[in-house]
Each structure stands twice: as C-alpha cells, then as structure tokens.
C-alpha cells in the first residue's frame, strides 16, 4: 500500500509546459507535485527543436502570450543560460518575389503589436546568412526569436522550481468531491490529494480532461525533424520561408512541409517542418523527409552535400481553433488546463506557467484568459 501524498497543486505532465507551471507555482509559494507516466520531456517536448518564436504569429492572443513568454525566457536565461543552451539568435523569414509584399504586410501588423521586425533587402540577405540561395526577393529579421535545448530546459526548469517529481506514475482518474470540486488524482501508485490539478499533458490533454469528466478536443498533428551531421556554424539564424506561417495556421489534415532551417550550439543543423494529421501513427514517412530535404536545400544549397544523420518524429497537441487551453475549467472547479499549444509549446511554456501560477495563487492574470478558456469548445460534460 503506497503512502498518501498531499500538496497544493498536482501538475500532470513533465514536459516543458508542466515544468514551467511547476516553476512559477512553486515560486508563488505553492507546494507542487509533478507526475508523469513517462520520463521528463518524454513526449512532444523531447521531439521539438526548442523554438521560442514571435515571428510566425499574427497579432492576437497567441502573439501576446509569445511576447510575455519571450520576456520570461530571457529572464530565465539570465539564471540558467548555458545550461539550457539559450541562444537569442533571431529569426530570418525569406520570401520569393511573389510572396514578399504579403510578408512585409504581415510584419507591419506585427510591429504595431510590439514585435521587433526589420525589413531586409535582397542584397542584404547574404550579409545575415552568407550561404543562402541567390534569387530571394527579401526578408524580415526578427531579433526576439530565440532557441533552447528542450529536454535540458524542461529538466532545469523542474529543478529550479524545486517541485517534487514523480515519473513513471500514471494518472488514472482526477478525483472529485461530492460538490464536483477537484480533490486530487488517483494514480497506479496511490492517490495524491490536492485542491488544484493542472492538466499539462500535451497531446494526451484530452484524455486527462476526460478522466476529470470534461471534454477538451486536443488532437495530435505529426511532425518530422531531420538532423544533419555536425557542421561548422553556417546557419546563423532560424531561417524559414514565408509560406511556413500559412502552413501552421492551416486546418488541412494532408501532409504539408515548409522549410525551416537552423544551426544548433552542438553543430548539427535541424531541418523542419512537416505537419499532418494521422492520429498517433509513428511510422516513418519517406515523402515527408524527402520534402523537408528538398525545401532545405532550396534555401541553403550547400546542404545538398551534407549527410542527414537521423530523423525524429513527434506529435504536436492542437485544438481546433489553434489556441491553447489555459486557465480554470468551470465545469470542474479546481481543474486547470495548460495544453494544446501545437508546435509552439516550448516558446509559450513560460507565459503559460506564469498565468497558471497567477490564477492558482488568487492573483489577476496579466493577460486576459478569455480567448484561451477551456470550455469554449462546448460546455457539455462527458
């Protein structure tokens, strides 16, 4: 018989979002236990590139969350810097002649919303990225874009918060009292009692919600990343083609790829980004990897002579309107959601964690949570 644990907050999920929720809740003075059926960063976090982006977001609630998160990441980098491989390298979005006007309009809208976005003329692109293909019409540089090493960052955020961590422990039910209020979780290794439970279970966020008796339609979107052999630093920014923004916002289930290329502190170049809705099918897709390689060599011709060492696959958790669920669930008092961030969870984790911690400790969250409210997809309980 395992011992009954008690705390103020149970966070379900030891990925980046769960780690950030635990960090900021702990710093707000709450006693936190993080549970995960697998290891730290065992899900989407471990299969991501670690992007902290504002460049791909149009004005609106997600961009506000990204700007808040970016400021918080910069603060954490001051504490944890090298340990999480934080690199404030900036983003460069490039366009073919037919796409340049649309990119410049997009950037102008972002500027009005507080994003730093610098137009780059065609003849200046090679100053920023000497190995770029010729013939591009211009681009926009985003100095606020940055990167971390996701698995390292999640582990260090968990450590910095000092929350208790219980991995290899599966939540089988969210416990609710007679009046419907949450009172903890049941796991395969005993109950944990707490007046607040945070669902930070990523692609499994819908399943965790169901275990509390509420509906949250989180869907998985599969993505591949190609990793090259280690190289001297030739790609200085995160570089991608303007059509990437449209692909992220698309509702299509079909395979889409748009080239996203970046160097890493360790040397390999990471090549994304593909997205398709195929459920949780992990099988390797040669068409997806071929399309990624073709797109990357179109941007950086030198890559055609470079070996891809491996590819990896992950699932991005998304909700039908492409906004995450963040905040309290009125259908189950004491249940909070922090999931559905799609491919932006690493970047949006810090802001999400801060907002959740503010609500948990009875403060007014610094962003309006209305657009993120978890019950927006239908009020009915399961």
From TrEMBL:
GO terms for molecular function: oxidoreductase activity. Keywords: Oxidoreductase. GO terms for cellular component: cytoplasm. It holds the Pfam family DAO. Residues 8-358 form the FAD dependent oxidoreductase domain. InterPro entries: FAD-dep_OxRdtase (IPR006076), FAD/NAD-bd_sf (IPR036188). It comes from the Bacteria. Its EC number is 1.-.-.-. PANTHER family: FAD-DEPENDENT OXIDOREDUCTASE DOMAIN-CONTAINING PROTEIN 1, SARCOSINE DEHYDROGENASE-RELATED. This is NAD(P)/FAD-dependent oxidoreductase.
């Amino acid at each position: 018989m395992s011992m009954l644990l008690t705390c103020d907050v149970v966070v379900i999920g030891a990925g980046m979002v769960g780690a950030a929720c635990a960090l900021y809740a702990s710093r707000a003075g709450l006693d936190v236990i993080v549970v995960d059926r697998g290891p730290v960063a065992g899900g989407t976090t471990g299969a991501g590139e670690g992007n902290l982006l504002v460049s791909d977001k149009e004005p609106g609630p997600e961009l506000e969350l990204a700007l808040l998160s970016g400021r918080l990441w910069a603060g954490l980098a001051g504490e944890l810097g090298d340990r999480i491989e934080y690199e404030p390298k900036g983003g460069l979005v490039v366009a073919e002649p037919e796409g340049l006007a649309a990119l410049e309009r997009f950037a102008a809208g972002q500027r009005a919303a507080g994003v730093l976005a610098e137009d780059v003329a065609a003849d200046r692109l090679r100053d920023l990225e000497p190995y770029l293909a010729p013939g591009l019409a211009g681009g926009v540089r985003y100095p606020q874009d940055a990167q971390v090493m996701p698995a390292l960052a999640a582990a260090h955020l968990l450590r910095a918060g000092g929350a208790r961590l219980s991995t290899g422990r599966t939540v089988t039910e969210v416990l609710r009292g007679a009046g419907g209020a949450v009172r903890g979780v049941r796991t395969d290794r005993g109950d944990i009692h707490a007046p607040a439970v945070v669902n930070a279970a990523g692609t499994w966020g819908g399943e965790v919600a169901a275990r509390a008796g509420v509906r949250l339609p989180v869907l998985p979107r599969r993505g591949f990343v190609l990793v090259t052999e280690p190289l001297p630093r030739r790609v200085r920014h995160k570089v991608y083609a303007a059509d990437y923004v449209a692909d992220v916002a698309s509702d299509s289930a079909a395979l889409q790829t748009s080239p996203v290329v970046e160097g890493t502190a360790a040397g390999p170049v990471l090549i994304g980004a593909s997205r398709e809705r195929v459920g949780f099918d992990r099988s390797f897709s040669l068409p997806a990897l071929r399309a990624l390689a073709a797109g990357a060599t179109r941007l950086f011709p030198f890559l055609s002579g470079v070996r891809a060492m491996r590819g990896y696959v992950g699932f991005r958790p998304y909700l039908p309107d492409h906004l995450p669920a963040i905040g309290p669930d009125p259908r189950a008092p004491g249940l909070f959601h922090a999931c559905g961030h799609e491919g932006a969870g690493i970047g949006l984790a810090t802001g999400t964690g801060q907002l959740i911690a503010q609500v948990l400790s009875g403060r007014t969250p610094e962003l309006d949570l209305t657009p993120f409210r978890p019950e927006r997809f239908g009020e009915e309980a399961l």
